[in-house]
Amino acid sequence: MNPEPFLQLDRVIHEKGRLAIMSMLAASPELSFTELRDALAMTDGNLTTHIRALQQEGYVAVAKSFQNRRPLTTCSLTAAGRKAFDEYINLLEQIVRQTKK
Amino acid sequence: MNPNWAEENLQTIRTLMERSAVYRRALAPIMLLAGVLGVVAAAIGLLLPVETYCGFLILWFGTALFALAGAFLIARRQALRDKEPFWSPPTRRVTQALVPPFAAGLCLGLLPVFFGPSEIAATVALVWILFYGFALHAAGFFMPRGIKVFGWLFIASVCLLVYGTAAEWIDLENKAHWLMGFFFGVLHLAYGAYLYLTEKGKNAA
User: Fold this and answer.
1) What is the mean pLDDT of residues B148-168?
2) Which of B35, B47, B179, B199 could staple B189 via S-S, CB 3.0–4.6 A?
């Protein structure tokens, strides 16, 4: 099996928690912090750490606002994040095809 | 390393993407409210009694408006409680799926007012039930799977009732309020009760 596609996998996205966050955000224009936390059953601290890592890489944008006088944090994929996610999926599909050969 | 890890990763990603796009508001309180309103409206229609077509329209359009307003308030309250935006992408998709069948049902319901005959309330009730089934089925693509089955129940029931009437096994004349009460009242109450027992921890709207 050619290890090339595996070596090209984005290490930032490949981590389980961050991959889950990227997957959720890829299917929705934006999601609130609580939506992500509840859907992925993560703790506030864990989710914050992963989002910060994705933000530092330029994959996720975080916006803070107020809704009914309550703070609301929403996350969305940036163009770079969507591109990186698409490339990650393409590589995974490539690996699956190779495994089946 | 498990050779299928890439495939499993892809499956996880697919599941998460689907979950992200699905409407997640608890439906039990909405179904129970719709059911109660349906039963009350049917009781009003039968006991007063409401026998003209215009009366039938006013009663059931009024009930539909109350049900929609109530559903809106319940969903908004849940969104506020969960600190989530009410007009989320899944909410938009569900609304877009519901609008065409609802609009068609509204137009067809108004038809006899302008062009008569007015003694076809039972036929209009069947049309509404059918279009409501279509609406539920369309919305079911963005909601938990049970909604599609619930939609199919409405569609299949109308088909059976039409065949039953054509074959003269059943007579639906003057049964409009019964039909509306059963499908929009009793069935919603039953589905609401089922959801209430199965949607864990989401029903305190």
Assistant:
1) 91
2) B35
Judge: B12–A23 Cβ closer than 8 Å, yes or no: yes
pLDDT tens figures, B6-49:
888 888 888 787 777 667 677 889 999 999 999 999 999 999 88
Task: Measure CA B161 to chain center.
Answer: 19
Structure confidence by residue, pLDDT tens digits, B113-143: 776 665 688 888 999 999 999 999 998 887 8
Residues 36-95 of chain A with CB under 8 A from chain B are 38-40, 67-68, 70, 72, 74, 89, 92-93, 95
What letter does residue B140 receive in the DSSP assignment?
G
**Cβ contact, residue pair A19, B9, below 8 Å:** yes
pLDDT of residue B198: 78
Task: Tell me if A19 is assigned to some domain.
Answer: yes
Q: Are strands A31-32 and A60-67 parallel, antiparallel or unpaired?
A: unpaired
E strand or H helix at B165:
helix B146-166
Is residue A100 included in any domain, yes or no?
no
Q: Provide CB contacts within 8 A for A13, sequence distance 6+.
A: A19, A22, A59, A84, A85, A88
CB within 8 Å: B20 and A38: no
Q: Which residue has the higher pLDDT, B62 or A2?
A: B62
ipTM reported for the complex surpasses 0.95 = no
Residue A73: give the domain boundaries: 4-95
Is A101 among the domain residues? no
Q: Is residue A74 one of the residues assigned to a domain? A: yes
**How many folded domains does chain A comprise?**
1
- Mean pLDDT, chain A, rounded, equals 87
